[in-house]
Each structure stands twice: as C-alpha cells, then as structure tokens.
Amino acid sequence: MTPPLAPVALTCGEPAGVGLELAVKAWEALRQELPFFLIADPSHLSGRVPVQIIDTPDQTHVVQPNALPVLAQPFAGSAQLGVADPANAQGVLDTIARAVDMTRQGLASAVCTAPIHKKALKDGAGFAFPGHTEFLAHLAGVDRVVMMLACAELRVVPTTIHIPLNDVPDALTQELLEDTIRITLADLQTKFGIASPRVAVTGLNPHAGEGGAMGFEDADLIEPVVTRLAAEGVSITGPLPADTMFHARARANYDVAVCMYHDQALIPIKTLDFDRGVNVTLGLPFVRTSPDHGTAFDIAGKGLAKPDSLIAALRMARDMAMAQAAD
Known about the structure:
This protein is an alpha/beta fold. 37% of the residues lie in helices and 17% in strands. It has helices spanning 19-30, 60-63, 89-105, 118-125, 132-140, 168-171, 174-190, 217-231, 248-251, 262-272, 308-326, and strands spanning 8-11, 36-40, 51-54, 68-72, 110-113, 146-150, 155-158, 198-202, 235-240, 256-259, 278-282, 288-291. Strands 3-4-2-1-5-12-11-6-7-10-8-9 form a twelve-stranded mixed β-sheet, sandwiched between helices.
C-alpha cells in the first residue's frame, strides 16, 4: 500500500496581514480534504478557531479534522492587525526556513507560503533579498528560478518580471529566454505530470514585430530560441502576437504561455480568474506555491479577505507534490 502523502507546510507570512485569517478559512474549507499544517506563533491565533499544537508534521492527519494543526514558532512581537512589527521579522523568516527544511527532509510534501512584508523584514532582520522567491532560491541553493502564475484555465510565465517596461528590451536575452523555457519545461514534466508540454511563446512587439515593421527583437532574439528548441523536439510555437494568444480556442493549443514581460503575462490570467490565481516557483528542488496577493493590511481582521487563492495554492501544492512523487 502506498503511504499517504506528507502534509503541506503552510507558513504564516506577515502576522499583521491577512495570512492567518486566510489560513483559518482554508482549514475550514479543506480540513476533510487536504492535510496541511500551519507554522506560526500560536498566540497570534488566539480565539480564531480550534487550534492544536503538533510536535511533528505526521500528526497532522489525526488532528486536522477537528482542529487547525499548528507547528509552534515563537515570534518576538504581537500581531497587531494592519501594522507590521519589525520585531516579528526573524520569526517570519524562520517559519519559511523550517518549511523548506521539512519539505526537503520529506516530512512535508510541499511549501505553501502566505504573503510577507519585505520592508518589515528588512527593518527587523536585515532581509537582503528582493523578495520571497529569491529567499527560497537561497535556501535551496539554486541560482535561477522562474515565476509561474497558474489557474484552471491558464499557466503563464513572464521572462522578465519586476522591471520598468523601458528596460525590458535590454534585459531580454536569448540566454534568459532559453533558460526560462527549459526550467518551465522541466517542472511541467516533473511537478505537473505533463509528459510533453506544449509551449507558446509571445512576441515582444505588437503583432510579434510584423516582419520588422514594429521592431526586430521578435525575429532576432525570440525566433532563434524557439527554432533551436523545436529542433530538439520541444513542442513550441512562437513568437506569437500576444493579443490573439489568450482567448479560449488559442489556449487549447498550449500548456503554458511564456511571455516577455510582467503585464503581458499577468493581465490575461488575472482577467480570467482574479481570485484563484496561484503563484508557483519553478526551478526549486521542492514544490512551492503561494496565493497571488499581498498582505492586504487595509482589510486585515475585517473578515473581508477571500481565501480562494490560498485554497487554490494549497490544492495545487498537493497536486504538484503527487505528480512529483509519481515521476
């Protein structure tokens, strides 16, 4: 008999944000479906739901039907909703490190992370990374990771991410694009269970350059990469005009769209499914997902935060871990 999959490790993120209340709502929705445990300071959860402290992740399956399983992580500060306390910074980072360590040991099947607040981490713990993803790459000892946004209808990968649009043409190189596609292909195979992924690559310019009438990057930079990978047997098309790639008939022809810049990728997925988009980090030696939203200090504690994205992130983490275990 195949042993049950280890539970998903959910980090609490910034305790002054919506992460803890969303963890509670996710437990209420998933407690009979999907085993996960929360790494958090139990005092930050006082009175929210039935909570049971666990000593090890394997206790999750027994506890979860009746209480939210919490692996205790002490924090130096309180959780004043809407106001980040830098005193909690090290606690936040420690929860992430513990989740990664447990997942790499096989005690957890995947890491799902609630949103962090980078300024509080910098002020309180000298956080030296641009964001969550880069910290996870550091913990994993890898040099390059790729961001994917995914929902039921679409997966998108931006080749360049948080840079001004004016800087994209200079940042976009054949090496970067090819590396992005190769990492994406590898994880679609091992973590999504897609044996022969189909990749659609957008152009950079309107109409994919229209034969040079609107720029030469599409022909000079993107097309050679697509041609090279196609010659290796990769199912890949492009560069394609981005304005005709995301309607339903077009989406049926590929498993992932590799885009050239942030908004080119994120606008279509957020239009299709704003509430259930999931942020996935590709290129890590473990599964990591996250809800596609921030700490939302303005609504923390008001009962307005929707758990849909976190629920989707936990389910996707579970499904990816299962695909990886079967690979």
